[in-house]
Specification:
With 156 residues, the protein is α/β, with parallel strands linked by helices. It contains 4 helices and 5 strands; from the N terminus they run H-E-H-E-E-E-H-E-H. A 5-stranded mixed β-sheet has the order 1-4-5-3-2, sandwiched between helices. Helix 3 crosses helix 4. The longest helix is centred in the middle third of the chain and has 22 residues.
Length: 156
């Protein structure tokens, strides 16, 4: 009963807690509130064949400990019926549990959005997709300028 649950919880926390260079462990929490998902949607994002990653660096005044990273998962009905969407979310949770403790950054919120190809994409490719997306959203280069931004040419 409860002893089995405690052992399972301890195993999950050991899997999600990894020592970082500043000696505070990175702890992975879940995003559950709609407002947090909407905030992440306004931040940096990167699309790869298996998923879309949204990443937002939290502000200092937010009530989440600094050594925590949070992750949320979403899959739209376009991907398939509920059993397909649930399977995609399970796959995304598995790669997040495996990669975010090493590649995620403290103070970030991540949202992984499943795509139609997420269900058929081989697991190693899905992991490579997440690593590539994490690298892109954490890079210091600014977002690509949107169409129409910047100075306008002088009229002739």
């Amino acid at each position: 009963g409860s002893l089995k649950c405690l052992k399972m919880e301890r195993l999950i926390m050991e899997r999600l807690t990894v020592e970082r260079p500043d000696h505070l462990p990175l702890i992975i929490d879940r995003l559950r509130v709609r407002r947090d998902f909407l905030s992440a949607a306004k931040a940096r994002k990167w699309a790869v064949p298996g998923l879309v990653l949204q990443a937002r660096q939290r502000r200092a005044h937010e009530a989440v400990p600094a050594n925590h990273a949070r992750v949320g998962f979403t899959v739209t009905k376009k991907v398939g019926k509920s059993h397909v969407r649930n399977r995609v979310k399970r796959r995304l949770r598995a790669i997040a549990a495996e990669l975010l403790p090493q590649s995620g950054l403290k103070g970030y919120d991540y949202v992984l959005i499943g795509r139609e190809g997420s269900i058929t994409r081989p697991f190693p490719d899905l992991k490579a997709d997440l690593l590539a997306a994490l690298t892109k959203v954490h890079s210091s280069s600014p977002k690509s300028p949107s169409k129409g931004s910047g100075p306008r040419p002088a009229p002739m």
